[in-house]
Amino acid sequence: MNPIEGMLREGSLKEKTIIVTGGGTGLGKSMARYFLQLGANVVICSRKLDVLEATAKELETETGGKILPIACDVRKTEQIEGVISASIEAFGRVDGLVNNSAGNFISPTEKLSYKAVDVVVDIVLRGSYYFTLALGKYWIDHQIKGTILNISTTYSWTGSGWVVPSAMAKAGVLAMTKSLAFEWAPYGIRLNAIAPGPFPTKGAWDRLFPEELAKKFSFENRIPLKRTGEHQELANLAAYLLSDFSSYMTGEVVTLDGGEVLNGGQFNFLKDVTDEQWAAIAEQIKNTNKPSRNGGE
Ligand SMILES: CCCCCCCCCCC/C=C/C(=O)SCCNC(=O)CCNC(=O)[C@H](O)C(C)(C)COP(=O)(O)OP(=O)(O)OC[C@H]1O[C@@H](n2cnc3c(N)ncnc32)[C@H](O)[C@@H]1OP(=O)(O)O
Ligand SMILES: NC(=O)C1=CN([C@@H]2O[C@H](COP(=O)(O)OP(=O)(O)OC[C@H]3O[C@@H](n4cnc5c(N)ncnc54)[C@H](OP(=O)(O)O)[C@@H]3O)[C@@H](O)[C@H]2O)C=CC1
Known about the structure:
binds NADPH dihydro-nicotinamide-adenine-dinucleotide phosphate, 47% helix, binds ligand L4XM7KOE, 7-stranded parallel β-sheet, alpha/beta, Rossmann fold
């Protein structure tokens, strides 16, 4: 496969200031890089300031863009308000938000303590609605037509065992996306979501696909397009959803997963049937058709 290139034309996010939560690592970092390349000012925030500062330095050197790293635990409203004030002070205003921060790990649900459930739900759901509410109020007060992108998952609507706190929280975020897309549309505020399939990141792989599992499962079998996602593919979609090119789209969730979620299709178990087996099956079915064609049972 050829390397994936940036999709939008230069300057597509010029004069926009975008906050990316969890922007110091993984997919957040990849989105931040592309937004900078497209001319946006970017604010990255999460708990670990040293990680954010290293990322900011790296991306600033690489892109020549303006990036501000700020420590913020998205479970703390006063820290969120601090990020918004600092962003306005640095760049004059805020136009976009990516609710990307998350906590997650696989575990049998009955083995989880109350605190283990809380920690995931609080980062994902509480963190997303706190940030959304704080920015929404600011946008409505200042008549800014802001845009929010929520990073969801496909199990927000299919459900999934062994990641139940994450599934509950991401489903709540999706409900918020669609509900507020309607309620805040009169203010020109748009909310959309991306549901990514597997995109290799250290954060996700350490907690969701550890070596013990990697030895037993292969993505080739699970994903119809036979590969994991490239970060630039997700960054392209994210930039489009935050840009004015998507100005007629709101309340939408776009799945980007190589077809993984389609595994639920009822007859998809047939994917391993060989050509010889198909020939035998066709013969058998045709034979059962014959009596009915001749008026028999
Ligand atoms: C074919 C196979 C398919 C592979 C699929 C691949 C990928 C698909 C992707 C699916 C969707 C992905 C969604 C994602 O969200 S990926 C993002 C992952 N990134 C992160 O999680 C980063 C941040 N995470 C963390 O910091 C931590 O993981 C944590 C969320 C736990 C928070 O850390 P913190 O330090 O604040 O909390 P503690 O360590 O003190 O723990 C709090 C309580 O939680 C309990 N705990 C922690 N880990 C586990 C575990 N593994 N099992 C059970 N319990 C756990 C811990 O014990 C604490 O509870 P108690 O005090 O009661 O003991
Ligand atoms: N990678 C994948 O295959 C998939 C990922 N996703 C979603 O993509 C997003 C990014 O995940 P990914 O890049 O893989 O993983 P990462 O672990 O790299 O990203 C998670 C980020 O969340 C931040 N974070 C965690 N807790 C908090 C908190 N309390 N306050 C603020 N920030 C916090 C972390 O920074 P810090 O530790 O500094 O706080 C980290 O930067 C998540 O929403 C995830 O659910 C969805 C489907 C698939």
